[in-house]
Amino acid sequence: MSFRSKSGKIRAPLNEAGLYDYAVKALGRRMRSEAELRRLMQARVEPGERGEAIIAAVIARLREYGYLDDASFAETYARLRQENEEPGVRRVRQALGQKGVAPEIVREVIDARYGETNEEALARQHLERKRIGKPQNEKETARVMRRLVAAGFSTGVIYKILRQWDIPDESLAALENLADEPREE
After folding, report:
1. What is the domain range of residue 102?
2. Domain identity same for 14 and 56
3. 93 touches 108 (CB < 8 A)
4. pTM listed for this prediction
5. Of residues 125 and 55, which shows the higher confidence score?
6. Rounded to 5 degrees, what are φ and ψ at 160?
7. Taking the CB of residue 84, how many other CB atoms lie within 10 A of it?
8. Is residue 48 assigned to a domain?
């Protein structure tokens, strides 16, 4: 049995040694969660039980050598996001979930990393870094709200900042639906 790669070449499925080498190289290019690596390896083995057994053996070996650890992956990912991008807690939680990290690990990492963090101060830093000032009209207020929601800040923190800017309550009421659906600009 063979499969076609992205480049169109026909390749034979990898055996355990080949898949292990492939996985180590994939982890060398960038850190990955177990679920991400599993998805990558799925395309390189034969389908069915035999392929699943090979993947399980490779994952067990990677764990044994300390190359694959979702808890340390989640901690590193959250730390880097906090240090470099300063996104809100919700965005980091969502990203880790999408990467296949178990909910209990995500909860532990978020509590440890953001437990003592002042989310309002983080949101204000984000606004300052993005050079977003006090909105002058309803359209600008909606834009600020969308940007903060997309950055992963809670609606409570967003409304608190907007209220401190003396945004009229009518304008804030008009924004209620924006908090539910994050959008990219």
Report:
1. 70-114
2. yes
3. no
4. 0.70
5. 55
6. -60, -45
7. 8
8. yes
Same domain, 82 and 55: no
> Which residues are CB-neighbours of 137 under 8 A, at least 6 positions away?
none
DSSP 178: G
Per the structure block, which two tokens stand in for 28? 């060398």
**Band of the pLDDT at 165, cuts 50, 70, 90?**
confident
My answer on whether 98 and 139 are in the same domain is no
CA–CA dist 130, 134 (Å, integer): 12
The residues, any chain, with a CB within 8 Å of residue 77's CB and separated by 6 or more, are 31, 92, 95, 96, 99
Residue 115 has a pLDDT of 80
The count of domains in the chain is 3
Cα–Cα distances (Å) from 182 to 25, 67, 127, 152, 175, in that order, read 35, 35, 17, 9, 12
In which element (H, E) is residue 53 found? Answer: helix 49-64
184 found inside a domain: no
Whether residue 91 is found in the same domain as residue 136:
no
Tell me, rounded to whole angstroms, the distance of Cα 132 from its chain centroid.
24
Together in a domain, 105 and 144: no
Report pLDDT digits (tens) over 59-86: 999 999 999 999 999 999 998 887 776 6
